[in-house]
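$ ./design --mode recover --in tokens.txt
reading tokens...
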């Protein structure tokens, strides 16, 4: 997956319809999440669509997140969240202001409130997971 900065550059040049396509494409690029991991424990609360997020720890201690959603655009949104932190150390993720990193995408302006209502919960779950794993 491209870096968040590269995605923001590309996103800035697109019209609304192409931005939707970019988000859908990002969601398709996510690593597959096994159905066995799509449980109540990995479900992100407060999302209008079903969203699952599961952290794994790489050999060197960095965190790698698996995610999925039953809605294509929401899956793209969670892909953006993950792009902000993927494969970084837990302490670095915990210190990252993900909302600020996503600000160039202005998702609340581009997407309906239904599609973005769970975004703060996705961000909080990533941060809480990183804090827990960094301890």
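writing sequence...
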């Amino acid at each position: 997956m491209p870096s968040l900065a590269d995605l923001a550059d590309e996103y800035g040049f697109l019209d609304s319809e192409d931005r939707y396509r970019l988000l859908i494409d990002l969601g398709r690029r996510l690593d597959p999440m096994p159905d066995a991991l799509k449980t109540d424990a990995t479900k992100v609360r407060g999302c209008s669509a079903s969203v699952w997020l599961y952290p794994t720890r790489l050999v060197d201690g960095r965190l790698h997140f698996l995610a999925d959603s039953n809605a294509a655009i929401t899956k793209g949104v969670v892909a953006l969240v993950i792009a902000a932190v993927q494969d970084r150390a837990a302490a670095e993720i915990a210190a990252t202001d993900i909302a600020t990193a996503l600000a160039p995408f202005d998702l609340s302006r581009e997407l309906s409130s239904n599609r973005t209502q769970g975004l703060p919960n996705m961000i909080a779950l990533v941060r809480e997971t990183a804090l827990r794993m960094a301890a």
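exit 0
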